[in-house]
Design a protein that fits this description.
Blueprint: H1 18-25, E1 30-31, H2 32-38, H3 44-52, E2 56-58, E3 61-63, E4 69-70, E5 76-78, E6 81-82, E7 91-96, H4 113-117, E8 126-128, E9 136-142, H5 145-152, E10 160-167, E11 182-184, E12 187-189, E13 193-200, E14 203-210, H6 217-224, E15 228-237, E16 240-241, E17 250-252, H7 255-262, H8 268-276
Parallel strand pairs: 9-15
Antiparallel strand pairs: 1-4, 2-3, 2-5, 5-6, 7-9, 7-17, 8-9, 10-14, 10-15, 11-12, 13-14, 15-16
Helix pairs in contact: 2-3
Amino acid sequence: MKNTFKKNNSETSSNKTAAEKSKALDTGPERIAKTIARSGLCSRREAERWIINGQVKLNSKILTECGVNVTSKDVIEVNGKSLPNKIITKLWIYHKQRGCLVTNYDPEGRSTIFDQLKNKIETRFISVGRLDMDSEGLILLTNDGDLARKLELPSTGWLRKYRVRVHGYVIPKDLEPLKNGITIDGIRYGRIDAALDRQQGSNAWLTLSFREGKNREVRKVMNHLGYNVNRLIRVSFGPFNLKNLPSGELEEVKNKVLNDQLGLSKPKNLKQNKNRK
């Protein structure tokens, strides 16, 4: 499954004619924010903000309303630049290192995962959810903003699994109430399956699994129980697992797995190119 990444931009083929590109992109009317997100520039939510802020032009006119459908015949510009051609959707598994931020820009100049990814492959990565700076492990990345938004939604219902090291002596029965959910400072956290893996001196390793993924959920819940988290590793997100992927490395999800797990159909332009070989 592992790929060696070289600096390239393989999302679109230079062998296709303009007519073939137009045909591949002609998917019928869809909301303009979705079209912008599918280009890989941003998520749909970000696209909607750009539209409201007057940063988007449709057929040379500034657009400020999101409820507009467009087709491949429409000309869309974002911040004065033409919208890139629709890309082939890709998904990657990335092993985030501790001490890195999951953000495109940090005003304090701290290290981000996107700084590190620049040397691996030339594409605009969009993260599916986040891990805080002190957390590590699996992050899903995609070049499709619309897909990123869909995978972040609670309705996806994907199980998130973490290995957690806490300071303190953990009694397994103290973890059992988490199965019924817990309310902390007015915030309701759903079912959490927690198991003690081993006690290691004054620290303990746990495995936690849940489906919601609220902000800093693991740390807040463990702190509420009286345990301080000193290491947090996400090992899986839905059907995707970290396995033995080294820290700081990137691995592309195979097309077959992507199609099977997410129901994405194979792009027509790829099939056409294969038939010509």
